[in-house]
Protein backbone atom coordinates (compact mmCIF):
# COMPACT_ATOMS: atom_id res chain seq x y z
CA UNK A 1 0.00 0.00 0.00
CA UNK A 2 1.28 3.46 -0.93
CA UNK A 3 1.72 5.71 2.09
CA UNK A 4 -0.16 9.00 1.91
CA UNK A 5 -0.35 11.84 4.45
CA UNK A 6 -3.09 11.26 6.97
CA UNK A 7 -5.48 14.12 6.20
CA UNK A 8 -8.24 14.04 3.60
CA UNK A 9 -10.56 16.46 1.83
CA UNK A 10 -13.99 16.08 0.21
CA UNK A 11 -14.93 17.90 -3.01
CA UNK A 12 -18.44 18.10 -4.47
CA UNK A 13 -19.01 18.77 -8.17
CA UNK A 14 -21.99 19.40 -10.46
CA UNK A 15 -25.66 19.58 -9.58
CA UNK A 16 -26.54 18.43 -6.05
CA UNK A 17 -29.21 15.86 -5.20
CA UNK A 18 -31.58 15.14 -2.35
CA UNK A 19 -29.11 12.59 -0.91
CA UNK A 20 -25.67 13.97 -1.77
CA UNK A 21 -25.02 14.98 1.83
CA UNK A 22 -25.67 11.40 2.96
CA UNK A 23 -22.48 10.42 1.11
CA UNK A 24 -20.64 13.21 2.91
CA UNK A 25 -21.93 11.95 6.25
CA UNK A 26 -20.72 8.45 5.36
CA UNK A 27 -17.23 9.77 4.59
CA UNK A 28 -17.08 11.72 7.85
CA UNK A 29 -18.28 8.78 9.95
CA UNK A 30 -15.79 6.42 8.32
CA UNK A 31 -12.93 8.88 8.80
CA UNK A 32 -13.80 9.32 12.46
CA UNK A 33 -13.77 5.55 12.91
CA UNK A 34 -10.41 5.21 11.17
CA UNK A 35 -7.04 5.01 12.87
CA UNK A 36 -5.38 6.33 9.70
CA UNK A 37 -7.19 9.64 9.17
CA UNK A 38 -5.97 12.53 11.29
CA UNK A 39 -8.21 15.22 9.84
CA UNK A 40 -11.07 15.50 7.33
CA UNK A 41 -11.82 18.74 5.47
CA UNK A 42 -14.40 19.86 2.93
CA UNK A 43 -13.66 22.20 0.02
CA UNK A 44 -16.27 24.95 -0.03
CA UNK A 45 -17.83 25.56 -3.45
CA UNK A 46 -16.24 22.60 -5.25
CA UNK A 47 -12.79 21.94 -6.60
CA UNK A 48 -11.85 25.61 -6.82
CA UNK A 49 -12.14 25.75 -3.04
CA UNK A 50 -8.87 23.82 -3.02
CA UNK A 51 -7.18 26.74 -4.74
CA UNK A 52 -8.71 29.39 -2.48
CA UNK A 53 -7.89 27.53 0.75
CA UNK A 54 -11.61 27.78 1.46
CA UNK A 55 -11.84 24.66 3.58
CA UNK A 56 -14.26 23.51 6.28
CA UNK A 57 -13.11 21.43 9.24
CA UNK A 58 -15.54 18.53 9.01
CA UNK A 59 -14.00 16.71 11.94
CA UNK A 60 -15.28 19.35 14.36
CA UNK A 61 -18.97 18.85 13.53
CA UNK A 62 -21.19 17.75 16.38
CA UNK A 63 -23.13 14.49 16.25
CA UNK A 64 -26.38 16.45 16.08
CA UNK A 65 -25.27 18.59 13.13
CA UNK A 66 -23.92 15.55 11.30
CA UNK A 67 -27.28 13.79 11.69
CA UNK A 68 -28.99 16.83 10.15
CA UNK A 69 -26.47 16.95 7.31
CA UNK A 70 -27.18 13.32 6.49
CA UNK A 71 -30.85 14.19 5.83
CA UNK A 72 -30.34 17.59 4.17
CA UNK A 73 -30.80 18.12 0.41
CA UNK A 74 -28.41 20.11 -1.76
CA UNK A 75 -24.73 20.28 -0.80
CA UNK A 76 -23.71 21.69 2.56
CA UNK A 77 -20.21 22.16 1.11
CA UNK A 78 -21.44 23.85 -2.04
CA UNK A 79 -20.57 22.73 -5.55
CA UNK A 80 -19.45 24.12 -8.91
CA UNK A 81 -19.67 23.68 -12.66
CA UNK A 82 -16.71 25.97 -13.37
CA UNK A 83 -14.11 24.39 -15.66
CA UNK A 84 -11.05 22.83 -14.04
CA UNK A 85 -8.06 22.01 -16.23
CA UNK A 86 -4.32 21.30 -16.14
CA UNK A 87 -3.54 24.94 -15.36
CA UNK A 88 -5.36 24.60 -12.04
CA UNK A 89 -4.06 21.13 -11.22
CA UNK A 90 -0.54 21.97 -10.04
CA UNK A 91 -1.56 24.74 -7.62
CA UNK A 92 -4.38 22.62 -6.20
CA UNK A 93 -2.09 19.66 -5.55
CA UNK A 94 0.53 21.95 -4.00
CA UNK A 95 -2.02 23.39 -1.57
CA UNK A 96 -3.14 19.88 -0.61
CA UNK A 97 0.39 18.66 0.02
CA UNK A 98 1.26 21.78 2.03
CA UNK A 99 -1.68 21.08 4.33
CA UNK A 100 -0.92 17.38 4.72
CA UNK A 101 -3.75 16.22 2.46
CA UNK A 102 -3.08 12.78 1.06
CA UNK A 103 -6.54 11.67 -0.07
CA UNK A 104 -9.17 13.54 -2.08
CA UNK A 105 -12.76 12.29 -2.31
CA UNK A 106 -14.62 13.57 -5.37
CA UNK A 107 -18.41 13.24 -5.30
CA UNK A 108 -20.19 13.90 -8.58
CA UNK A 109 -21.12 12.83 -12.09
CA UNK A 110 -19.33 12.56 -15.42
CA UNK A 111 -17.55 15.92 -15.28
CA UNK A 112 -16.44 15.43 -11.69
CA UNK A 113 -15.03 11.98 -12.47
CA UNK A 114 -13.02 13.56 -15.31
CA UNK A 115 -11.56 15.99 -12.78
CA UNK A 116 -10.85 13.12 -10.38
CA UNK A 117 -9.02 11.26 -13.16
CA UNK A 118 -6.97 14.38 -13.85
CA UNK A 119 -5.82 14.38 -10.22
CA UNK A 120 -5.13 10.64 -10.31
CA UNK A 121 -2.96 10.95 -13.41
CA UNK A 122 -0.80 13.52 -11.63
CA UNK A 123 0.22 10.65 -9.32
CA UNK A 124 0.57 12.91 -6.27
CA UNK A 125 -2.55 12.14 -4.23
CA UNK A 126 -4.81 9.22 -3.47
CA UNK A 127 -8.06 9.79 -5.38
CA UNK A 128 -11.45 8.16 -4.77
CA UNK A 129 -14.68 8.98 -6.62
CA UNK A 130 -18.19 8.68 -5.20
CA UNK A 131 -21.05 8.58 -7.74
CA UNK A 132 -23.75 11.25 -7.60
CA UNK A 133 -26.22 12.21 -10.32
CA UNK A 134 -29.99 12.22 -10.71
CA UNK A 135 -29.40 11.59 -14.44
CA UNK A 136 -28.20 8.06 -13.53
CA UNK A 137 -25.85 8.12 -16.52
CA UNK A 138 -22.53 7.05 -14.98
CA UNK A 139 -20.87 3.91 -16.29
CA UNK A 140 -19.42 1.40 -13.87
CA UNK A 141 -22.37 1.39 -11.49
CA UNK A 142 -25.73 -0.34 -11.70
CA UNK A 143 -27.38 2.90 -10.54
CA UNK A 144 -26.34 6.24 -9.07
CA UNK A 145 -27.16 7.77 -5.69
CA UNK A 146 -29.60 10.60 -6.36
CA UNK A 147 -31.52 8.82 -9.12
CA UNK A 148 -33.89 6.87 -6.87
CA UNK A 149 -35.07 10.01 -5.08
CA UNK A 150 -35.54 12.00 -8.30
CA UNK A 151 -37.42 9.05 -9.78
CA UNK A 152 -39.61 8.90 -6.69
CA UNK A 153 -40.36 12.63 -6.79
CA UNK A 154 -41.36 12.66 -10.46
CA UNK A 155 -43.42 9.48 -10.14
CA UNK A 156 -45.33 11.15 -7.28
CA UNK A 157 -45.69 14.37 -9.26
CA UNK A 158 -47.06 12.65 -12.36
CA UNK A 159 -49.33 10.43 -10.26
CA UNK A 160 -50.89 13.50 -8.62
CA UNK A 161 -51.05 15.56 -11.83
CA UNK A 162 -52.78 12.55 -13.34
CA UNK A 163 -55.36 12.52 -10.52
CA UNK A 164 -56.05 16.21 -11.19
CA UNK A 165 -56.25 15.56 -14.92
CA UNK A 166 -58.71 12.71 -14.38
CA UNK A 167 -60.90 14.88 -12.13
CA UNK A 168 -61.08 17.89 -14.45
CA UNK A 169 -59.43 17.08 -17.81
CA UNK A 170 -57.19 19.93 -19.00
CA UNK A 171 -57.40 18.07 -21.46
CA UNK A 172 -53.62 17.79 -22.18
CA UNK A 173 -50.78 18.34 -19.70
CA UNK A 174 -47.11 18.11 -20.65
CA UNK A 175 -44.78 17.52 -17.67
CA UNK A 176 -41.11 18.38 -18.13
CA UNK A 177 -38.83 15.97 -16.27
CA UNK A 178 -35.20 16.57 -15.33
CA UNK A 179 -32.55 14.89 -17.49
CA UNK A 180 -30.23 16.01 -20.28
CA UNK A 181 -29.27 13.17 -22.61
CA UNK A 182 -30.45 10.18 -20.60
CA UNK A 183 -34.09 9.32 -19.97
CA UNK A 184 -33.79 7.38 -16.74
CA UNK A 185 -35.91 9.78 -14.67
CA UNK A 186 -38.57 10.40 -17.30
CA UNK A 187 -38.93 6.63 -17.77
CA UNK A 188 -39.47 6.23 -14.03
CA UNK A 189 -42.65 8.32 -14.22
CA UNK A 190 -44.31 5.11 -15.45
CA UNK A 191 -44.14 3.97 -11.80
CA UNK A 192 -47.05 6.37 -11.20
CA UNK A 193 -49.52 3.96 -12.81
CA UNK A 194 -51.73 1.64 -10.77
CA UNK A 195 -55.02 1.53 -12.68
CA UNK A 196 -55.95 1.44 -16.39
CA UNK A 197 -55.91 4.96 -17.76
CA UNK A 198 -53.49 6.28 -15.13
CA UNK A 199 -50.91 8.90 -16.08
CA UNK A 200 -48.49 9.16 -17.69
CA UNK A 201 -50.13 8.20 -20.96
CA UNK A 202 -47.08 9.04 -23.08
CA UNK A 203 -43.36 9.11 -22.20
CA UNK A 204 -40.66 10.44 -24.52
CA UNK A 205 -36.98 9.58 -24.10
CA UNK A 206 -34.01 11.53 -25.53
CA UNK A 207 -32.57 8.14 -26.58
CA UNK A 208 -35.51 7.74 -28.98
CA UNK A 209 -36.18 11.24 -30.34
CA UNK A 210 -39.73 11.76 -31.64
CA UNK A 211 -40.92 14.19 -34.30
CA UNK A 212 -43.50 16.81 -33.44
CA UNK A 213 -45.84 15.01 -35.83
CA UNK A 214 -45.45 11.77 -33.85
CA UNK A 215 -46.13 13.53 -30.53
CA UNK A 216 -49.26 15.19 -31.93
CA UNK A 217 -50.55 11.93 -33.42
CA UNK A 218 -49.94 10.10 -30.13
CA UNK A 219 -51.68 12.84 -28.13
CA UNK A 220 -54.71 12.78 -30.43
CA UNK A 221 -54.91 8.99 -30.21
CA UNK A 222 -54.91 8.99 -26.39
CA UNK A 223 -57.37 11.89 -26.31
CA UNK A 224 -59.84 10.04 -28.55
CA UNK A 225 -59.65 7.08 -26.17
CA UNK A 226 -59.63 8.80 -22.76
CA UNK A 227 -60.59 12.41 -23.30
CA UNK A 228 -57.45 13.51 -21.43
CA UNK A 229 -53.69 13.12 -21.80
CA UNK A 230 -50.67 13.49 -19.51
CA UNK A 231 -47.34 13.50 -21.34
CA UNK A 232 -43.91 13.16 -19.66
CA UNK A 233 -40.97 14.57 -21.62
CA UNK A 234 -37.29 14.70 -20.71
CA UNK A 235 -36.00 18.29 -20.54
CA UNK A 236 -33.22 17.44 -22.98
CA UNK A 237 -35.58 15.99 -25.61
CA UNK A 238 -34.78 16.77 -29.27
CA UNK A 239 -36.43 15.80 -32.54
CA UNK A 240 -34.72 13.34 -34.96
CA UNK A 241 -32.79 16.24 -36.50
CA UNK A 242 -31.44 17.30 -33.10
CA UNK A 243 -33.64 20.39 -32.77
CA UNK A 244 -35.34 21.25 -29.43
CA UNK A 245 -38.77 21.83 -31.02
CA UNK A 246 -38.15 25.59 -31.09
CA UNK A 247 -37.34 25.88 -27.38
CA UNK A 248 -34.81 28.46 -26.23
CA UNK A 249 -31.36 27.08 -25.41
CA UNK A 250 -29.57 27.74 -22.15
CA UNK A 251 -25.79 28.05 -22.72
CA UNK A 252 -26.04 27.42 -26.50
CA UNK A 253 -22.90 26.00 -28.07
CA UNK A 254 -21.69 24.47 -24.79
CA UNK A 255 -21.60 20.76 -25.63
CA UNK A 256 -21.54 19.81 -21.96
CA UNK A 257 -24.24 22.11 -20.58
CA UNK A 258 -26.46 23.23 -23.49
CA UNK A 259 -30.08 22.53 -22.57
CA UNK A 260 -33.54 23.67 -23.71
CA UNK A 261 -34.82 26.05 -21.04
CA UNK A 262 -38.59 26.01 -21.76
CA UNK A 263 -39.24 22.73 -23.53
CA UNK A 264 -42.63 21.80 -22.00
CA UNK A 265 -44.03 25.29 -22.58
CA UNK A 266 -42.81 25.33 -26.20
CA UNK A 267 -44.15 21.84 -26.88
CA UNK A 268 -47.49 22.73 -25.29
CA UNK A 269 -47.93 25.65 -27.68
CA UNK A 270 -46.85 23.58 -30.68
CA UNK A 271 -49.16 20.65 -29.86
CA UNK A 272 -52.07 22.98 -29.18
CA UNK A 273 -51.55 24.76 -32.49
CA UNK A 274 -51.33 21.48 -34.42
CA UNK A 275 -54.22 19.65 -32.74
CA UNK A 276 -56.57 22.39 -31.61
CA UNK A 277 -56.56 20.93 -28.08
CA UNK A 278 -55.97 22.99 -24.95
CA UNK A 279 -52.52 22.09 -23.63
CA UNK A 280 -50.75 23.25 -20.49
CA UNK A 281 -47.21 22.72 -19.27
CA UNK A 282 -45.77 21.83 -15.86
CA UNK A 283 -42.08 22.08 -14.92
CA UNK A 284 -41.08 21.07 -11.38
CA UNK A 285 -37.47 21.74 -12.38
CA UNK A 286 -34.85 21.75 -9.63
CA UNK A 287 -37.46 20.76 -7.05
CA UNK A 288 -37.25 17.31 -8.60
CA UNK A 289 -33.62 16.83 -7.59
CA UNK A 290 -33.71 18.65 -4.25
CA UNK A 291 -37.02 17.64 -2.67
CA UNK A 292 -36.24 16.37 0.84
CA UNK A 293 -39.75 15.06 1.55
CA UNK A 294 -39.75 12.68 -1.43
CA UNK A 295 -36.41 10.98 -0.69
CA UNK A 296 -36.18 7.26 -1.38
CA UNK A 297 -34.95 5.52 1.77
CA UNK A 298 -33.03 3.01 -0.34
CA UNK A 299 -31.34 5.90 -2.15
CA UNK A 300 -30.40 7.65 1.10
CA UNK A 301 -28.94 4.49 2.61
CA UNK A 302 -26.93 3.64 -0.50
CA UNK A 303 -25.60 7.18 -0.79
CA UNK A 304 -24.33 6.97 2.80
CA UNK A 305 -22.80 3.54 2.13
CA UNK A 306 -20.93 4.81 -0.93
CA UNK A 307 -19.32 7.53 1.16
CA UNK A 308 -18.46 5.20 4.04
CA UNK A 309 -17.07 2.49 1.75
CA UNK A 310 -15.01 5.05 -0.18
CA UNK A 311 -12.93 5.62 2.97
CA UNK A 312 -12.56 1.89 3.49
CA UNK A 313 -11.43 1.51 -0.14
CA UNK A 314 -8.80 4.19 0.46
CA UNK A 315 -7.57 2.34 3.53
CA UNK A 316 -7.19 -0.81 1.44
CA UNK A 317 -4.86 1.13 -0.85
CA UNK A 318 -7.20 1.85 -3.75
CA UNK A 319 -6.69 5.00 -5.78
CA UNK A 320 -8.02 6.14 -9.14
CA UNK A 321 -11.33 4.38 -8.59
CA UNK A 322 -14.99 5.27 -8.22
CA UNK A 323 -17.20 3.40 -5.76
CA UNK A 324 -19.82 1.65 -7.91
CA UNK A 325 -23.01 -0.11 -6.84
CA UNK A 326 -24.01 -3.58 -8.01
CA UNK A 327 -27.57 -4.76 -8.69
CA UNK A 328 -27.59 -6.16 -5.14
CA UNK A 329 -26.41 -2.83 -3.65
CA UNK A 330 -22.88 -4.06 -2.91
CA UNK A 331 -20.10 -1.51 -3.47
CA UNK A 332 -17.17 -2.20 -5.79
CA UNK A 333 -14.17 -0.10 -6.85
CA UNK A 334 -14.33 0.81 -10.56
CA UNK A 335 -11.32 2.32 -12.42
CA UNK A 336 -11.91 6.01 -13.13
CA UNK A 337 -10.65 5.70 -16.70
CA UNK A 338 -13.62 3.45 -17.49
CA UNK A 339 -16.07 6.03 -16.10
CA UNK A 340 -14.78 9.56 -16.74
CA UNK A 341 -16.33 11.29 -19.73
CA UNK A 342 -18.65 8.43 -20.68
CA UNK A 343 -22.43 8.33 -20.58
CA UNK A 344 -24.79 5.45 -19.83
CA UNK A 345 -28.07 5.83 -21.69
CA UNK A 346 -31.33 3.91 -21.35
CA UNK A 347 -31.07 0.74 -23.50
CA UNK A 348 -33.30 0.94 -26.56
CA UNK A 349 -34.78 -2.42 -25.57
CA UNK A 350 -36.08 -0.77 -22.36
CA UNK A 351 -38.09 1.73 -24.43
CA UNK A 352 -41.33 0.51 -26.03
CA UNK A 353 -41.17 -0.14 -29.81
CA UNK A 354 -43.63 2.77 -30.21
CA UNK A 355 -40.99 5.07 -28.69
CA UNK A 356 -43.46 6.58 -26.22
CA UNK A 357 -43.34 4.36 -23.13
CA UNK A 358 -41.09 2.40 -20.79
CA UNK A 359 -41.00 -1.39 -20.90
CA UNK A 360 -41.67 -3.74 -17.96
CA UNK A 361 -37.93 -4.41 -17.80
CA UNK A 362 -37.29 -0.71 -17.20
CA UNK A 363 -39.87 -0.68 -14.40
CA UNK A 364 -38.36 -3.76 -12.76
CA UNK A 365 -35.07 -1.87 -12.70
CA UNK A 366 -36.42 1.44 -11.36
CA UNK A 367 -39.09 0.31 -8.87
CA UNK A 368 -36.77 -0.93 -6.07
CA UNK A 369 -34.70 2.26 -6.27
CA UNK A 370 -37.65 4.67 -6.07
CA UNK A 371 -39.59 2.68 -3.47
CA UNK A 372 -43.29 1.92 -3.33
CA UNK A 373 -45.92 4.52 -4.24
CA UNK A 374 -49.42 4.61 -2.82
CA UNK A 375 -52.18 4.14 -5.40
CA UNK A 376 -55.09 6.57 -5.21
CA UNK A 377 -58.59 5.03 -5.46
CA UNK A 378 -60.60 5.36 -8.65
CA UNK A 379 -64.41 5.13 -8.33
Low-confidence stretches: none
Q: Could you give the count of β-strands?
A: 13
Strand content: 15-25%
Oligomerization status of the protein chains: single chain
Task: Based on the coordinates given, report the CATH architecture of the largest domain.
Answer: 3-Layer(aba) Sandwich
Provide keyphrases for this structure:
alpha/beta; Rossmann fold; single chain; 379 residues; elongated; 2 domains; seven-stranded mixed beta sheet
Give a short overview:
The protein contains twelve helices and 13 strands. The chain has 379 residues and is an alpha/beta fold.
How would you describe the overall organization of this protein?
This protein has 379 residues and is of the alpha/beta class. The chain folds into two domains: 7-146 and 292-338, 3-Layer(aba) Sandwich (Rossmann fold), CATH 3.40.50; 149-290 and 346-370, 3-Layer(aba) Sandwich (Rossmann fold). The chain contains twelve helices and 13 strands. It has helices at 20-33, 48-52, 63-71, 86-98, 110-121, 147-167, 184-188, 212-226, 263-275, 287-290, 297-315, 360-370, and strands spanning 7-12, 39-43, 55-57, 101-108, 126-131, 172-177, 202-204, 229-234, 249-250, 259-260, 279-282, 321-325, 331-335. It has a seven-stranded mixed β-sheet, with helices on both faces. A four-stranded parallel β-sheet has the order 7-8-6-11, with helices on both faces. Strand 9 and strand 10 form a beta hairpin. The protein starts with 6 loop residues before the first strand and ends in a 9-residue tail after the last helix. The model has no long low-confidence stretch (mean pLDDT 94).
